[in-house]
Amino acid sequence: MEIKPSGFYEILSPRCTVLISTVDKDGKSNAAPFSFVTPVSSNPPLLLFAATPQRHTLANVRETGDFVLNIMREELLEQLWVCSRAFPKGVSEIEEAGLTERKSKKVKSPSIEECAGWIECRLEFEKEAGDHILVVGRVVHAECKDEFMEGKEFNVSKAKPVMHIGGRRFIAAERLVRVKGSD
Question: Does a structural domain hold residue 179?
Fold first, then answer.
């Protein structure tokens, strides 16, 4: 079946879905879900998310220069959906969703306590790309709840991170598969 070029991302599924939390210049928090997210460099540690220009998230990142990627879990899917609504600027989606703000270690933007992990970033640069703005952040702190780690590996089976397909369709990743071979 042929797919419209504008819908290509659906077959690049599932995509990691995070809540990006920010604050504006007045310290009011914001959180919005994003699935156009990817690491782009490990040295220096950089990641990218793509935002539409009208998002409060983008405006806040421009005002304060930082943001936090909060790793969502299956049990938080309803709260993630609340955060996707178009609330007026200054209304905290974190509060509206019944989530808890947590002071971040290295940035002004809050983390969200209920999430599996947090990646704190400072704005490195942004670039216009079609109908989105690519926002590249430098990772300044990363942390995961101990219960979701096995040694130094993220335990997908326990955390069940949320992955987006499209619209209201998500998958909770929970099964680890390893490549067999002689390394």
Answer: no
